[in-house]
Design a protein that fits this description.
- By secondary structure, this protein is mainly beta.
- The chain has 2 helices and 17 strands.
- The protein has a 7-stranded antiparallel sheet with strand order 16-11-12-13-14-15-17, with no helix packed on it. It has a 6-stranded antiparallel sheet with strand order 1-10-9-8-5-6, with no helix packed on it. Strands 2-3-4-7 form a 4-stranded antiparallel sheet, with no helix packed on it.
- The protein starts with a helix and ends in a 34-residue tail after the last strand.
- Pfam families: DUF1684.
- This is DUF1684 domain-containing protein.
- InterPro entries: DUF1684.
């Protein structure tokens, strides 16, 4: 086996492991595919046909009122009467359990919503994996990261029309494609790396229209990074109407087709 063949085999094996992990993540019994509802709260008690108890929210807190027979619990303690919760803007939701189901209490752009996770959700039962383009090493592209001189916040819209997302923008990533230089804004990501939200000419055709996400590892000295578009990932909103994901910033709309990474899921 030649060096090139070994390199290509390693690339495919690593991509296959990444793809298997993505499938496993979305197959989790209380993950994104388990969502069955997104209920927005107001400042007076509301009830919902698919959820026990009464719920209200204001600018400061959420109040849930229930009886022990409703089987709502927080941290293992049954809700008996009224309990106050204080979800944080943009943070992971606070959890109220109801039997095998989970109610996630979230605050987004000042509003509060309940997301219901059900391990018996139809979308979860129908899930058979995330469709993708075939892995292609040509879509691993060398690029250069250039940091901003000062911290910068970039605001984007969301798939829920009235919401906004505020991103910690760290700099730009530039690369050459088809003889032209392209530049993307990079947001703070995991493990000191970056997070890119982008669209391209496949968006709304074979890939999800609002955005795909790409993780970029931290740069080496001098700013060199690699954009591996084979790992362009769907956001949760590609799988469910009950997510509140951001859309890509205008600066990150590529005019060419990135035929790599994940395609539109079949379960949306």
């Amino acid at each position: 086996m030649t060096v090139t063949e070994t390199r290509d085999t390693t690339f495919v094996d690593e991509w296959t492991a990444w793809h298997a992990l993505r499938d496993a993540t979305f197959a989790e019994p209380l993950g994104w595919l388990s969502l069955t509802a997104l209920h927005w709260l107001v400042d007076t008690d509301s009830t919902f046909s698919d959820l026990p108890g009464a719920w209200r929210a204001d600018a400061d807190a959420v109040v849930v009122t229930a009886r022990p027979a409703d089987d709502l619990s927080i941290d293992g303690v049954a809700v008996d009467g009224s309990v106050t919760l204080t979800p944080v803007e943009g943070a992971p939701g606070l959890i109220v359990n109801q039997g095998p189901r989970r109610v996630e209490v979230i605050r987004r752009t000042g509003e509060v919503a309940l997301r219901i996770h059900d391990p018996l959700a139809p979308a979860l039962a129908q899930f058979s994996g995330i469709p993708t383009f075939d892995p292609n090493p040509q879509w691993r592209i060398d690029a250069v990261f250039t940091a901003f001189n000062e911290a910068r916040t970039v605001t984007t819209g969301a798939v829920v029309e009235r919401l906004e997302h505020h991103h910690d923008a760290r700099g730009t990533i530039s690369f050459e494609y088809d003889g032209e230089t392209r530049t993307l804004i990079a947001f703070a990501g995991k493990d000191d790396g970056f997070h890119i939200l982008f669209t391209d000419a496949t968006s709304g055709v074979t890939t999800y229209p609002a955005a795909r996400s790409l993780h970029v590892s931290p740069p080496v000295p001098g700013g060199a990074v690699v954009l591996d578009f084979n790992r362009a990932s769907n956001l949760p909103c590609a799988f469910t109407d009950y997510a509140t994901c951001p859309v890509a910033p205008a600066e990150n709309r590529l005019p060419f087709a990135v035929e790599a990474g994940e395609k539109i899921p079949e379960v949306h």
